């Protein structure tokens, strides 16, 4: 009886990986627990260990192979004497006994990937700030973020990165990959697990003239440090009558990640955007992530920079420009339309674009606004679009109550009332902690179908 | 000194020997030998704080100062002694909300400190900070922080910047015995020791965290020993004697500047007034307060040294008159100075225009 060894899922967001190295060869006897191979996930290089005893009868995927999908058979393990023929073709599969793998069905991350890569006729693939004729190259969101930090660190010695696992581990989500090698331990600082403490140290260093980039492994842990973000960083410039400055960036993955439960699934956009004295950025694609992170690092103000874990591994076109810095406080019309305005940010933009494409088939031409900056909010772009379409649907990967969506609804009422032909509708996550069970989680998270439904309502269709 | 029962007022090392095996420990500081001019300067600054704070109490009663107002009376020797060992323009300082005295110890004009207390445009924070939020970037003084204990990691961050730039500077982070029970203090201790940050952690132990005595709030009251788990040495110092403080400050500055990492100075001190203006301080006996005032007052302590240096009482009386005059002028200024313009509500929120 031979067991089919399958490409394992070794992180919550892993869809495929690189089979970096085989540590065994065909014919090798294997003990349970033995390391068989090294596999590079979207986050790190992981060891793949044997569950069963046997002999490697056939290696199906050679080392160095990239983009090996989770669930792909990579080798056969013979578990009785008859198997040891080094003849993979005769091996039977016994999936239930093999290494646990991710469900082969489309995972949430795959759905997101798909949603984020629609062939959209009217999507504007570059930020309006990029000059015409600029060349583009492909880059993942995490690479764009890393390049933004590296470029700013090369430019300004005051910039340093501090956080848990940012240096030797190369970043818990690999966003700081390679920074330690280039800049050394003075400027890429691993901290103990002490969010409150190292955030305070970062703010103190910023007050003394440095430009810290503080990484939270996820923004969920920023709640441990929220006192320093608000009371120390956001308020000191004001309290000191303009004397003290606090040029610091707090960054990290924010919002939903698949199947990680309530404490690790939360959107802090509305929390931080409520605070005068902070700048809050939440880009969607790699273009904006790069241009805005560079702007954040150069800003003289404290900036909360919210990233999306589900998008870290997604590839976007990024402009080939020596020094690409985007303005803070400017939203971007990412799809032009005339019938309804869908306002969103971060991963919500991908759902909005997918919905817009589906709506186009129904004859509804949706304009999609990517806010990019949550504070200060670009009201002008929203209100101008409202004046054109007379309808707003907001889309937010977060709770509905006291949300960015609520704020947009208020702005539309207060400043755009005469242009509204329908109530503003909010499409958000459910007003609950995030559950673990796959079906409940899916039901609770914002999705294109809900957006389509809301748009039909404000357009008085069906 | 909180209970005035300490055997010796001489500085001594915190008992961390067994917790820090083979650790290089700082020497026992000597009481500082000040010359005549220095003695007078210490006296002048402490007296300025005393008279200034007394006046604050009056102005509070008149409704000219509002909100929270925490007076430094009794603790003058700590800020004055420490400040004198730091190099202006190089070393940075941060403290909590009982910071009027720290501002004055720097020699900052009492007029703009008082004008901040009355919420005027000419106040050091243009009236937008108030009693608890005063800063001076010119003096590298970073407040003026209202969240108990927050100044400790912030102070370690100031030291991080000095070490990062290798500019020879250090930081002093002052906090009280109440702050010493905040978790973030120990996060800061750990990282400061781990990264050998040049930071002096100054515990102003006045015996009471608002109304809770140190005995009622601490499982082990020797706050100086709490750095031991991180390998941080500590000195326990009579914070009612400015020359002892000044002597210990020299040892501490030398220690952190030699790259040996942080050091803790536990200053045993006492506040004569309540925690804030609204605190009647009924949690301690009149006898206890009177004993501190009569037998341990930092100004009286220094007077003995002044007399020993041959400075006549008349000179001190004259000094007091001068200071009272300056404080009166500051109070008059603070009362008459204009309020901030209405537009100031919306300024200094962000530096950038977005």
Q: Level of helix content of chain B?
A: 25-40%
Query: Number of helical segments of chain B?
Result: 11
Computed over alpha carbons, the radius of gyration of chain B is: 20 Å
User: What form of chain B results from the Cα inertia axes?
Assistant: globular
Task: Name the poorly predicted regions of chain B.
Answer: 1-7
Shape of chain A: globular
| Ends distance of chain A | 58 Å
> What number is the mean pLDDT of chain A?
90
Strand content bin of chain A: 15-25%
Q: How many alpha or pi helices of chain A? A: 13
Order of helices and strands of chain B: EHHEHHEHEHEEEHEHEHHH
Oligomer: heterodimer
Low-confidence stretches of chain A: 86-108
N-end to C-end Cα span of chain B: 53 Å
* Protein structure class of chain B: alpha/beta
Largest sheet of chain A: 7 strands, mixed
Biggest protein-protein contact in the assembly = A-B, 47 and 51 residues
Backbone structural class of chain A: alpha/beta
- Spatially, the strands of the biggest sheet of chain B line up as 1-8-9-5-4-2-3
Mean pLDDT of chain B: 93
Can you put this structure into words, describing what you see?
The complex is a heterodimer of chains A (462) and B (354). The model of chain A is unreliable at 86-108 (pLDDT under 50). In chain A, α4 (195-207) runs parallel beside α5 (226-234). Chain A starts with a strand and ends with a helix. Chain A is an alpha/beta fold and 462 residues long. Chain A is built from 13 helices and 22 strands. In chain A, the strands form five sheets. A seven-stranded mixed β-sheet of chain A has the order 11-10-12-13-15-14-20, sandwiched between helices. Chain A has a five-stranded mixed β-sheet with strand order 17-19-18-21-22, sandwiched between helices. Chain B is 40% helix and 11% strand. In chain B, the strands form two sheets. In chain B, strands 1-8-9-5-4-2-3 form a seven-stranded mixed β-sheet, with helices on both faces. Chain B has a two-stranded antiparallel sheet with strand order 6-7. Residues 1-7 of chain B have low confidence and may be disordered. At the A-B interface, α4, α5 and α6 of A face β3, α5 and α6 of B.
């Amino acid at each position: 009886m031979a067991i089919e060894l399958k490409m394992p899922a070794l992180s919550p967001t892993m869809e495929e990986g690189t089979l970096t190295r085989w540590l065994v060869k065909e014919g090798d006897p294997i003990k349970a627990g033995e390391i068989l191979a090294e596999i590079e996930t979207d986050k790190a290089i992981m060891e793949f260990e044997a569950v069963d005893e046997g002999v490697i009868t056939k290696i199906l995927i050679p080392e160095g192979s990239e983009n090996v999908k989770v669930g792909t058979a990579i080798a056969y393990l013979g578990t009785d004497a008859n198997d040891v023929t080094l003849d993979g073709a005769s091996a039977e599969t016994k999936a239930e006994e093999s290494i646990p793998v991710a469900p082969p069905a489309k995972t949430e991350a795959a759905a997101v990937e798909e949603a984020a890569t629609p062939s959209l006729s009217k999507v504007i693939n570059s930020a309006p700030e990029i000059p015409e004729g600029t060349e583009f190259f492909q880059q993942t969101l995490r690479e764009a973020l890393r390049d933004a930090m590296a470029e700013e660190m090369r430019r300004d010695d005051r910039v340093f990165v501090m956080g848990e696992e940012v240096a030797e581990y190369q970043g818990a989500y690999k966003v700081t990959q390679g920074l330690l090698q280039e800049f050394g331990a003075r400027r890429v600082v691993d901290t103990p697990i002490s969010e409150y403490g190292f955030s305070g140290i970062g703010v103190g260093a910023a007050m003394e003239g440095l430009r810290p980039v503080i990484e939270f492994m996820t923004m969920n842990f920023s709640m441990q440090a929220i006192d320093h973000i608000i009371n120390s960083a956001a308020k000191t410039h004001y309290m000191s009558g303009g004397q003290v400055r606090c040029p610091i960036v707090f960054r990290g993955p924010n919002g939903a990640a698949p199947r990680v439960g309530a404490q690790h699934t939360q959107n802090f956009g509305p929390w931080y955007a409520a605070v005068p004295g902070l700048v809050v950025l939440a880009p969607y694609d790699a273009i904006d992530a790069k241009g805005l992170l560079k702007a954040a690092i150069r800003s003289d103000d404290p900036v909360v920079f919210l990233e999306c874990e589900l998008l870290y591994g997604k590839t976007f076109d990024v402009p080939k420009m020596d020094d690409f810095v985007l303005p803070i406080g400017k939203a971007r019309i990412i799809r032009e339309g005339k019938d309804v305005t869908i306002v969103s940010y971060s991963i919500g933009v991908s759902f909005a674009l997918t919905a817009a494409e589906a709506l186009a088939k129904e004859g509804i031409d949706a304009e999609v606004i990517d806010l990019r900056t949550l504070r200060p909010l670009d009201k002008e772009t929203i209100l101008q679009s409202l004046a054109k379409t007379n309808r707003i649907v907001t889309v937010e990967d977060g709770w509905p109550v006291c949300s960015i969506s609520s704020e947009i609804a208020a702005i539309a009422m207060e400043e755009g009332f005469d242009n509204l032909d329908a109530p503003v509708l909010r499409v958000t996550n459910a007003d609950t902690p995030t559950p673990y069970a796959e079906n409940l989680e899916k039901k609770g998270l914002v999705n294109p179908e809900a957006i389509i439904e809301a748009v039909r309502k404000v357009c008085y269709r069906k | 000194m909180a209970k005035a029962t300490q055997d010796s007022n001489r500085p001594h090392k915190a008992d961390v020997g067994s917790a820090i095996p083979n650790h290089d420990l700082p020497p026992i500081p000597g009481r500082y030998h000040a010359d005549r001019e220095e003695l007078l300067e210490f006296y002048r600054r402490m007296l300025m704080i005393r008279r200034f704070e007394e006046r604050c109490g009056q102005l509070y009663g008149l409704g000219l100062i509002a909100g929270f107002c925490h007076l430094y009376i009794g603790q003058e020797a700590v800020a004055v002694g420490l400040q004198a060992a730091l190099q202006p323009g190089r070393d940075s300082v941060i403290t909590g909300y009982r910071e009027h005295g720290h501002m004055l110890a720097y020699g900052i004009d009492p007029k703009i400190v008082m004008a901040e207390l009355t919420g005027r445009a000419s106040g050091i924070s243009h009236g937008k900070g108030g009693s608890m939020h005063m800063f001076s970037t010119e003096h590298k003084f970073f407040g003026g922080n209202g969240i108990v204990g927050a100044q400790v990691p912030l102070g370690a961050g100031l030291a991080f910047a000095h070490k990062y730039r290798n500019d020879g500077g250090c930081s002093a982070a002052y906090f009280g015995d109440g702050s010493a029970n905040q978790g973030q203090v120990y996060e800061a201790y750990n990282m400061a020791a781990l990264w050998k940050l040049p930071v002096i952690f100054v515990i102003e132990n006045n015996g009471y965290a608002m109304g809770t005595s140190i005995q009622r709030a601490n499982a082990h009251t020797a706050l100086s020993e709490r750095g031991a788990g991180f390998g941080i040495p500590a000195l326990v110092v009579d914070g009612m004697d400015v020359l002892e403080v000044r002597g210990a400050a020299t040892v501490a500055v030398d220690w952190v500047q030699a790259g040996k990492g942080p050091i803790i100075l536990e200053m045993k001190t006492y506040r004569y007034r309540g925690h804030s203006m609204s605190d009647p301080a009924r949690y301690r006996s009149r006898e206890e307060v009177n004993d501190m005032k009569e037998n341990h007052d930092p100004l009286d302590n220094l007077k003995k040294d002044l007399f020993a240096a041959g400075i006549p009482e008349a000179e001190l009386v004259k000094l007091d008159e001068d200071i009272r005059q300056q404080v009166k002028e500051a109070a008059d200024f603070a009362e008459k100075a204009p309020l901030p313009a209405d537009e100031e509500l919306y300024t200094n929120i962000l530096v950038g225009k977005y």
